Structures are given as structure tokens and as C-alpha cells.
TrEMBL record:
It holds the Pfam family Acyl-CoA_dh_1. InterPro entries: Acyl-CoA_DH_CS (IPR006089), Acyl-CoA_Oxase/DH_mid-dom (IPR006091), Acyl-CoA_Oxase/DH_mid-dom_sf (IPR046373), AcylCo_DH-like_C (IPR036250), AcylCo_DH/oxidase_C (IPR009075), AcylCoA_DH/ox_N (IPR013786), AcylCoA_DH/ox_N_sf (IPR037069), AcylCoA_DH/oxidase_NM_dom_sf (IPR009100). Coiled coil: none annotated. It comes from Rangifer tarandus platyrhynchus (Svalbard reindeer). PANTHER family: ISOBUTYRYL-COA DEHYDROGENASE (PTHR43831), ISOBUTYRYL-COA DEHYDROGENASE, MITOCHONDRIAL (PTHR43831:SF1). Residues 263-413 form the Acyl-CoA dehydrogenase/oxidase C-terminal domain. Keywords: Acetylation, FAD, Flavoprotein, Oxidoreductase, Transit peptide. This is Isobutyryl-CoA dehydrogenase, mitochondrial. Its cofactor is FAD. Residues 158-251 form the Acyl-CoA oxidase/dehydrogenase middle domain. Residues 42-153 form the Acyl-CoA dehydrogenase/oxidase N-terminal domain.
């Protein structure tokens, strides 16, 4: 029964290859030609982009303020999104995924993020976790775990950061000591998105000596004795998804839940993050696109000094710069997504550049759009402040933007 559901979800997106279908009219909100996100896409991509914009406008945008203010994790909405294939966008089709590319995923996450940046960002982390299982898991693990995850019947969390290891992730100390056919986990993970609500925790833990080669990746299922959660963190943004510490106290996890080989965990975590960086940067694009459109509309209607603000050349030039920075960010993200898809050697550094550039620029665009709203931009009645708050954290996580600079400069200096 369940299996049929995810196959239908994947088939729906794949069916678009055969020609346009889905909702007849685009719900893309306020698309302006020079910043049109469909520029350069093929017909199939334009179709699923429309579907994602439509979904964002109808199912997400009307609720984003409530999810934020009441801190609601919108499970039902995400399950609806999964029916369209958004729970496993770049997951293989035999396990319920949509089988689309990294570029396709970026197009989809950008569109969804216009409706709620925070929830889309969680969905992108979920996709990253499912990909890690799909790509590095055994056939048994793929068939057992991926289908319910693609359908978002089950939710996943990515567990790398610890209280004492953030940017220096390879120094993590959560231990996994083998006892017959189980690992006994002890330690804790900090800042885990989806923590407490997710059903599956993809955990990087130490099975060997110090450094990255001593790290393995195991899946810990909710309900396992010895697994518990910290309090729900109070955050500036990303309020539609819970963030909690994940704690392991003599938590026995079957060896059969290890993804990949012993010692391969850090590599798996980093491979996941390459795509994660494209995804989170795409969420920033969606927030910046929506903010720019809101600012443009506001400048046209708000009058000061006897005329619309849009007549002021300073503000016109700022709007122009915001548009140029948005399009530049999108081009970088899409170039990196294609490099990752083709498994090119420069993919890691291009993903780092795209994440650094786009999350910085897009946050600046959202913030400038708030400034253009004056005092009203600071009120929670206006959506703009939520895009600012939700996109701020993208400069910090999935590898902070300082870490991105480290990766880029290391690559340059090695040549
Ligand atoms: C809302 C939220 C959700 C998150 N979700 C997850 C999740 O789902 N899973 C997960 O594993 N983690 C998650 N994280 C954790 C996130 O990845 C880390 O916060 C991030 O990697 C930075 O680590 P840190 O906070 O320990 O900062 P630190 O590493 O202590 O860094 C502090 C500051 O110093 C800078 N810095 C550090 N080292 C250097 C250096 N060598 N040179 C220059 N600057 C440096 C950093 O860039 C940063 O600005 C989340 C964080 C937040 C806030």
C-alpha cells in the first residue's frame, strides 16, 4: 500500500518528461522578466517549477507566518509535498524517489522556499539524508528506509555537529563501540534540525581513532532505548522546524544500520553536505526572490515626499543591484549543481563558492528589502521580516561561510 504511494509520487514528477501536465496556471508570485527563475530552463524543468511555485503559493505561503509564530512543524503539508515527489527529489526511482538531478532539485527548493523558507530548508535536509542512504546504503537498507522517507511517512535528521565540534566536525567524540552485532553509542549531537520529531537519525560517530577516518555513519531509529532529546531551542528564525540536541546513553544500534563501511562516515557526511549546500543556497534564492518582489511592489505603492518611493533613483538603483545579485547567485548555484551532478572534480569547491556567495548575497537582498519597507518591514504583519530571519542561518550552517572560504582558498593554494 505504502510502496504504491511513493511510486506514484516519483512517477508524477517523472511523468512531466512526457509533456506538460499538472495545474494549468502558474502560481509563480509576481515574476518579473529579468529575474524570472525559469530563464534558461528546459520545458520539463519549467513545468515542475510551476508545480512547485503553485504548491508554495497555495499550501505554504498562507500559513508561513502561523508556522513561524506558533512554531509548528507542518507534517501534513510536507506529506502533501511528498505526493508530488518533493520528499525524495534526487533519490533513485526504484525506492520511491523522483530520480531528478541536482539542478532540478535546486529549481524546486528555490520555488518552494518562496512559500516558506524554513520548512523548505528542513525538507532539503531530509532529502540530503535520504540521498546518503540511497547512495551509500546496502540494498536492504535502501529498500527498507528510502520508500517511507521519500513519502515523508517518516522524517530524517542529519546528526554531525556536537557541543564541542562545529566547524571542526572531524573532531567529533560521540563514540560507537562494537559489541557483537550492535554498536553502543554514547555522546550528544547539538542543533539537530528535526530533532525529536524525526523518525530516523543519520548519525556520524567514532568507531575508530582520531580524525576523519575514525568516523562511521549509522542510522538510529526513534524509540531506540538510550536515545533522547534536549529541549526545543528558541531560535531567531527556522521556527517551523524544531532544533534539539540528540543524546545517546548506552544506545544499542544494530551493526546492520551502519551506512557504508566503518571509517567511511566522514566522507559520506561531506558528500551529503555538497548537495546540502546547493539546497540551502537554493532556499536563500527563494527567500531573496520573494523579498525582492515584495520590495518592488511596496516601493510602487508607498508614497513619501509627494510621490511613490519607486520614483527615487537611489532606491531604483538599489533594486537594480538586488536583482543583479539575485541572478548572479542563481547562476552560481545552477553551475555548481550541474558540476555536482556530473561528479566533476571541481564540484566541491563550486558548491562551496555557490553557498558562500548566494547565502551572503541573498541575505543582503532580504535585509535590503526589509529596509525598503521602513518601519513596516520590522512588523510581523509583513512577511519580509520572516524571510530575513529564516535566511540568516544559511550563512552559519551546512558549513559556515568562513568554512566555505577555507575550502575555496585551500583548493586555490593547492594548485
Ligand atoms: C538552526 C540551526 C540548525 C542546525 N541544524 C543542524 C543539523 O541538522 N545537523 C547538524 O549536524 N548541525 C546543524 N547545525 C549546526 C551547524 O552546522 C553549526 O552551527 C555550524 O557548523 C557552526 O558550528 P558552531 O556553531 O559550533 O560554530 P563554531 O565552529 O564554534 O564557529 C564559530 C564561528 O567561528 C568561525 N570559525 C570557526 N573556525 C574558523 C576558522 N578556522 N577560521 C575562521 N573562522 C572560523 C565560524 O565560521 C563561526 O562564525 C545547525 C545550526 C543551527 C543554528
Amino acid at each position: 500500500m505504502l510502496r504504491g504511494t511513493f511510486q506514484r509520487a516519483g512517477a508524477w514528477l517523472r511523468g512531466l518528461r512526457r509533456g506538460p501536465r499538472g495545474p494549468a496556471e502558474s502560481a509563480r508570485r509576481g515574476v518579473v522578466s529579468c529575474i524570472d527563475p525559469s530563464m534558461g530552463l528546459n520545458e520539463e524543468q519549467k513545468e515542475f517549477q510551476k508545480v512547485a511555485f503553485n504548491f508554495a503559493a497555495r499550501e505554504m505561503a498562507p500559513h508561513m507566518a502561523e508556522w513561524d509564530q506558533k512554531e509548528l512543524f507542518p507534517v501534513d503539508m510536507m506529506r502533501k509535498a511528498a505526493q508530488l515527489g518533493f520528499g525524495g527529489v534526487y533519490i533513485q526511482t526504484d525506492v520511491g524517489g523522483a530520480g531528478l538531478s541536482r539542478l532540478d532539485a535546486s529549481v524546486i527548493f528555490e520555488a518552494l522556499a518562496t512559500g516558506c523558507t524554513s520548512t523548505t530548508a528542513y525538507m532539503s535536509i531530509h532529502n540530503m539524508c535520504v540521498w546518503m542512504i540511497d547512495r551509500f546504503g546496502s540494498e536492504e537498507q535502501r529498500q527498507r528506509l528510502c520508500p517511507p522517507l521519500c513519502a515523508m511517512e517518516m522524517f530524517a535528521s542529519y546528526c554531525l555537529t556536537e557541543p564541542g565540534s562545529g566547524s571542526d566536525a572531524a573532531s567529533l567524540v560521540t563514540s560507537a563501540v562494537r559489541q557483537q552485532d550492535h554498536y553502543i553509542l554514547n555522546g550528544s549531537k547539538a542543533f539537530i534540525s528535526g530533532g525529536g520529531e524525526a523518525d530516523i537519525y543519520v548519525v556520524m560517530c567514532r568507531t575508530g581513532g582520531p580524525g576523519p577516518r575514525g568516523i562511521s555513519c549509522v542510522v538510529v531509529e526513534k524509540g531506540t532505548p538510550g536515545l533522547s532529546f534536549g529541549k526545543k531551542e528558541k531560535k531567531v528564525g527556522w521556527n517551523s522546524q524544531p532544533t534539539r540536541a540528540v543524546i545517546f546513553e548506552d544506545c544499542a544500534v544494530p551493526v546492520a544500520n551502519r551506512i557504508g563501511d566503518e571509517g567511511q562516515g566522514f566522507l559520506i557526511a561531506m558528500k551529503g553536505l555538497n548537495g546540502g549546500r546547493i539546497n540551502v543556497a537554493s532556499c536563500s534564492l527563494g527567500a531573496a526572490h520573494a523579498s525582492l518582489v515584495l520590495a518592488r511592489d511596496y516601493l510602487k505603492v508607498r508614497e513619501q515626499f509627494g510621490q511613490p518611493l519607486a520614483n527615487n533613483q537611489y532606491l531604483q538603483f538599489q533594486l537594480a543591484e538586488m536583482a543583479a545579485r539575485l541572478v548572479a547567485s542563481r547562476l552560481m548555484i545552477r553551475t555548481a549543481a550541474m558540476a555536482l551532478q556530473e561528479e566533476r572534480e571541481d564540484a566541491v569547491v563550486l558548491c562551496s563558492m555557490a553557498k558562500l556567495f548566494a547565502t551572503d548575497e541573498c541575505f543582503a537582498i532580504c535585509n535590503q528589502a526589509l529596509q525598503m519597507h521602513g518601519g513596516y518591514g520590522y512588523l510581523k504583519d509583513y512577511a519580509i521580516q520572516q524571510y530575513v530571519r529564516d535566511s540568516r542561518v544559511h550563512q552559519i550552517l551546512e558549513g559556515s561561510n568562513e568554512v566555505m572560504r577555507m575550502l575555496i582558498s585551500r583548493s586555490l593554494l593547492q594548485e
